[in-house]
Design a protein that fits this description.
Order of helices and strands: EEEEHEEEEEE
Distance between the termini: 45 Å
Strand content: over 45%
Low-confidence stretches: none
Structural class: mainly beta
Radius of gyration: 22 Å
């Protein structure tokens, strides 16, 4: 699909293709793989909070996924590996603009890579348990942090090398018990 967007005086012309394959390995088991290319324009706040030196660019993501799903009787399980490679991902760096708003800036290279696991069991017609977990690495390659010194209003820079993406936990776990009363 081709997308052309005009936003805050900027023109964005995107092609976001997606392709995938699914193979039925057994009657209740399938394996799959996919690739997609995604582009996204900066949001309004990225433009209004930006400085002339840090004008936002669009993000580009290459996403590869592969996994398996199976079900046997009352049990179901799924595992999915993913790798999202970004160019110009917009992230918070600690910088603020002239009125104190946080600025998201493009980082040249970053990635999110991990595995997602899901499981479910149906105990009876009333009770079901679902659980999921994601284990991931979410990194910026060669990240520079900017910290404002409010006495001098100058930035101090700290080079962290490869570092975690803010607000991107490495482990996420969830669980849900469902009780469905008799009608």
């Amino acid at each position: 699909m081709k997308t052309i967007l005009y936003f805050m005086g900027q023109k964005y012309n995107f092609v976001n293709p997606k392709a995938g394959l699914t193979y039925q390995a057994a009657p209740q088991t399938s394996v799959f793989a996919s690739y997609s290319l995604g582009n996204r324009e900066p949001n309004r706040d990225d433009f209004t909070s930006a400085t002339a030196q840090l004008f936002p660019k669009n993000e580009t993501m290459h996403n590869v996924e592969a996994g398996v799903r199976t079900q046997k009787g009352k049990w179901a399980f799924a595992a999915n590996y993913y790798l999202m490679n970004y160019t110009n991902q917009l992230v918070l760096t600690g910088q603020i603009n002239d009125v104190g708003n946080a600025i998201r800036v493009n980082v040249p290279k970053s990635y999110r890579m991990g595995i997602e696991l899901e499981g479910a069991v149906v105990f009876n017609q009333y009770l079901k348990w679902n659980a999921n977990a994601t284990f991931s690495r979410n990194k910026i390659r060669d990240f520079t942090e900017y910290v404002i010194d409010y006495d001098t209003y100058e930035y101090r820079t700290i080079n962290h090398g490869n570092t975690d993406i803010s607000f991107s936990p490495n482990v996420i776990v969830g669980s849900q018990f469902s009780y469905i009363p008799k009608k």
